[in-house]
């Protein structure tokens, strides 16, 4: 078995890499000039070229296994669905984003299966449910789920990271705590690195961000001191 393990090849990649890329950087005018009155010029890479770019070490190999992390973003949407009809604004954009991501991911795996071969696909996710935009009721458990160990149980058992939420917000005068959606409150005031600068001044950070960091790590310190006292 040791010999088999030493011969294993591992490829770690993001699903975005499965999207077929342009082989030539052409402007709209340049494309029209080259095409003339003929058929449309095919400038996208082929499926084989994509695989050669993403996983050259697996070309010609057998017994390929895919381990999908965050696999709730990988599924084939329900055909002829229109569950986005009732969605508006950001919800509709989010549903479309989910659909596009899932389509790229699952299509990429289907290409791998056709061109190289897949012996197993193992999905891993803390939330194995269909997302909005899938054509299925949001929150529906994937029918191929073999084990559903709830996220709360995983947190309590220490298997996954413990989520951190704001426990203090001492910026008065607002109905909604600024820490709850911190990025929306500070993103336009974040410092930008100028050409020639090697470092940024930490004191130039927005007051809300500095206060949030102090509140977060101050809570860590207090908790640590309590643990120390308890021995």
From TrEMBL:
Q: Which organism is it from?
A: marine sediment metagenome
Q: What is the lineage of its organism?
A: unclassified sequences, metagenomes, ecological metagenomes
**What protein am I looking at?**
Helicase/UvrB N-terminal domain-containing protein
